[in-house]
Amino acid sequence: MENETELRVVHQEEQQREEGEDESQPQNPPPALRRRFVIYLYVGYFLARWSARTWEFSVALYMIHLWPNSLLLAAIYGAIESGSTAIFGPIVGQWVEGMDYVKVLRLWLLFQNLSYTIAGGAVIKLLLVSDLKSRNLPVFAILIVLTNLAGAIGVLSTLAGTILIERDWAVVMSEGHPPEVLTKMNSVIRGIDLSSKLLSPVITGLIISFVSLKASAITFAAWATITAWVEYWLFISVYSGVPAITRSNERRILRSRTKQVEGRDAPVSVSIVPGTEEGYTGNPPSRTGILVILDRMSKSSFVGAWRIYFNQEVVLPGVSLALLFFTVLSFGTLMTATLQWEGIPTYIIGIGRGISATVGLAATLVYPLMQSRLSTLRTGLWSFWSQWSCLLVCVGSIWVKKDKIASYMLMAGVAASRLGLWMFDLAVIQQMQDLVSESDRCVVGGVQNSLQSALDLMAYLLGIIVSNPKDFWILTLISFSTVSLAGMLYTIHLYRIRNHIFHLEKIPLLNKCLFKLLPSRGNV
């Protein structure tokens, strides 16, 4: 039997044995998920993701407006945002794992909405004084720095919420229920994210096109201020109303206390550095200080988080997913700024991004159907290579002479590829949920986001190096090559587990041809 199926069957059998150990004593089935609290979870997550997706779309337009004919400001912002997640992502994951849920909720929502409010206020000031760069460059620079820092803090806060909801609460709420419950929750949560990605750019683009950039910044800052209180009430209601979450919170508090006790009671190992024994009169080795630093780094929580991640069975799918972030072939900051430089109207870019999100939203409907028929692992394979095929249109747009047609081809290829991309994302997330232990779940989620942001950062650094929008074709080719590498890694992972890639015997035409070409056993 194949590894993935074995793990699930063993897990189900263990649960059945535990439930049937004493048939004379009735076992209480897990309480049904109360629909009200599930809806609260979905609505609160929608409000949080709306703020994040609105800022993600708007910031590129603000930066290209403040520094026309250059991707520099947009690329610098993206690099700072991605770099902060790459560096602090594992620490955020461990922080979420080590604190109780109420503290995580309070800090997440406070810092996310406060940061976005400050960033929005800084942008408003920059837009109100159109010639601030020429009149007062130091103030202009300070406001740009403030926007970047506030945006980075907001993204880190959003990461904490994403880990909590997607990697933890969804799994905890579905415990004891059929696997289809988790699959459905994953699809709905991803659908909420993509719905925000669909609607917020359209509305923001309409505000910018028919009102002004200033109006969009004011609307964003007001939204972040108002929704913080609503989000907190919704999530606290879910925490208080779902017993499984309360029990999980008690377990994580117990784990945290156990680790603290073990850390205090652990024996102290004393190592003698060569050349420091008693009676030795020579000079100690010059590398002693470096060795001490390396030893401390190896024992740090940052390195420990990465060690946990690379020991997981799902490390190759995780790396494959992360490689997809080393790309400009998405409606992100660099591609949005380039399309605007090409003369594509803002509302058209918003609609294109919305169409892209709609296609991705369809993935949340198609994924459960494919996963129930092909398994999670194989669904990831088919979805990835369907995405890769669509990106060939983007590569082909490089050789189209008319700029507008090339831009629309680029948008079409990216939008079509979102179906396979988000199905692959769901497949990898569910593999992590199934195969990563509860104690490592948030840590692995933090490292995964850190790795994704590190590769996203590399894409922005490329944008800084290749900052002229007319050279966007170079970034396109590099991005496509990275996507191809990700596909090869995931295919290797599948082959390593299943010892084959395709079920050739299930293809009737091919099976018939092989039967005719190969000699029968009696003639050999």
TrEMBL record:
Compositionally biased tracts (Basic and acidic residues): 1-18
Sequence segments annotated as region (Disordered): 1-30
Membrane topology, as annotated: Multi-pass membrane protein
Transmembrane region(s): 72-95, 107-128, 140-165, 314-335, 347-369, 381-399, 472-492
Main location: membrane
Keywords from the UniProt entry: Ion transport, Membrane, Transmembrane, Transmembrane helix, Transport
Subcellular location: Membrane
GO-annotated cellular components: membrane
Pfam families (UniProt xref): FPN1
Family under the similarity heading: Belongs to the ferroportin (FP) (TC 2.A.100) family. SLC40A subfamily.
Protein known as: Solute carrier family 40 member
Organism: Arabidopsis suecica (Swedish thale-cress)
